[in-house]
Amino acid sequence: xxxxxxxxxxxxxxxxxxxxxxxxxxxxxxxxxxxxxxxxxxxxxxxxxxxxxxxxxxxxxxxxxxxxxxxxxxxxxxxxxxxxxxxxxxxxxxxxxxxxxxxxxxxxxxxxxxxxxxxxxxxxxxxxxxxxxxxxxxxxxxxxxxxxxxxxxxxxxxxxxxxxxxxxxxxxxxxxxxxxxxxxxxxxxxxxxxxxxxxxxxxxxxxxxxxxxxxxxxxxxxxxxxxxxxxxxxxxxxxxxxxxxxxxxxxxx
Length: 253
Hints:
This protein is of the alpha/beta class. Helix content is 50%, strand content 12%. It contains twelve helices and seven strands. The strands form two sheets. Strands 2-1-3-4-5 form a five-stranded parallel β-sheet, with helices on both faces. Strands 6-7 form a two-stranded antiparallel sheet. A hairpin with an 8-residue loop joins strand 6 and strand 7.
């Protein structure tokens, strides 16, 4: 009996996550060392993604089970997809992802330091803005971390995100991203890059939390009332947001 679409997608994603967990563990740990070092110094691990690569950025902070020290950078002009057509449509967003100089203008908003880290998510690794974000961070002296599909990067004859970052975490996603083939349909459906990127994002987050705790600076985690009760969870939310405000204050001084 042939696989159903659901079975195809499940098999593909499980195989992908298992492969990434095995092959990229050491690189995720290296990235965690870099991010934890920045946070322990009172600086920040910046996160950037355009298009659907904003998803793992928001997965890291702020949400339950996350903590300050990470600084999400998401530009609505590059990531606002639900309009699709018309004003603020997808055509404009896709064009802006390759606008030269835009990354420099984004970075100009912040007082950055060589003690910071920069994590850039880009599945294909070919759009200009994520590449220039990493290059801008390199110029400042930050350690740069890419989360990208190496197979897709290698298929591109031009410079890619993997070419410009210090640490490259391969999300293992095949070129084209979608993995489910339907009889009678010309092209596959159901991408896997968000699943892989979010796995890497949460693995990185967990590794950083371990390092901060081991160093005597446990993170202020946004925690569900299921774990600590309603009153304590509310306190912890305020503590986490206050800590985030204090940390990002350094970016505007």
